[in-house]
Amino acid sequence: MSGSAFVTIVGAVALGVLGCGARTDLDVSENAFDASLPDIDCLDDPTRCDDGSACTIDDCLPGGRCRNTPIRCEDGDACTDDACDDSSGCFTTPTRCDDSSLCTIDSCDSAIGCVRESIVCDDADPCTADGCDPRVGCTFVPTDCRGCADGTRDAFLDTARYERIAACAGGFAIAGLSRALAPMCDRGAGDDGPNPSGVGCTAADLCAPGWHVCVTAGEVASHSVDGCRGASDAPPASFFATRQTGPGCGHCSTGADRSCDNTSCRPGCAQTENTTNDIFGCGNLGAAPRAASCGVLDRFSNNLCGSLGPPWRCDDDPRGLRESDFVVKRGAAGGGVLCCLD
User: Fold this and answer.
1) Full-model pTM
2) How many CB atoms lie within 10 A of CB 313?
3) CA angle centred on 283, ends 153 and 216, rounded to 5°
4) Number of H helices, E strands in the chain
5) What is the pLDDT of residues 276-294, one digit of tens each?
6) Cβ-contact 299, 282 below 8 angstroms
7) What kind and span of H or E run contains 94?
8) Considering only CA atoms, which of 282, 251, 254 is closest in space to residue 166?
9) CA dist 322 to 140, 189, 215, 238, 313, Å?
């Protein structure tokens, strides 16, 4: 049979099966989706707006457009972290307040959230420097409980009674007491040290590690059980200075008035960079200050250190108004400084 005859027969058979009224597959296009027809919106079928998430509120707007609004998960507790899961909805987890520091006590307050309180490291031992390392917690580093860089106290000799204050004799050639200067000669100063004249040293070089030159009359009072009485065992003609300064005329700046300067000459002044007149401390050398303003301190330098004498020297300021800024002591005699435990 020829190819053309075969095609003719197959076509005839097909027409016979479909019948005269049947439609070919070319005709079914009339039932296909017509993009020109209006779509079914959420007004006709509200379920069209369901996005399947428990974390949204699904709405059908009047125009037939869906709106899926994220819900706000908030339980009002500052100690929980609030989140949402598409399947189950809102959930909370406890807030992590641990800062990984062994120097804090971590807790949580429902109103304000994490609270971190610093721990207090105090072993009540005057021969250790108390501190805290975030990695290991409290640290207690041994210090020289004698307080003086040369290892020998020169007054306040009873270390049991005066465990937090020491009188240390020696020289310092770098001027100044009113400012907090760092040690500059590896604490080699001191009348029993390798550098008794204090060449290249500050007053801080007279104090042992963990100690500092006492700053104010109030600090001396807080470190000594009976103020300057511990200086009664000092050698004759000894004055032990602090960083306490005044507004002139033998007054100490132990008040709150910050308007004072070096010529105010009255009580009530605050200790500032503008009140550096005179040097105050304890001992049996020097003039008596105006005790009402100087608290426990019982000796002072007077004008240009005139009541102390060599090797104390304060005359680089010829007006005699800033002795605590300019004071030097180039020799071991005549005392030194009071050192307070840090």
Assistant:
1) 0.61
2) 18
3) 90
4) 4, 16
5) 999 999 999 999 998 899 9
6) yes
7) strand 89-94
8) 282
9) 39, 24, 16, 22, 12
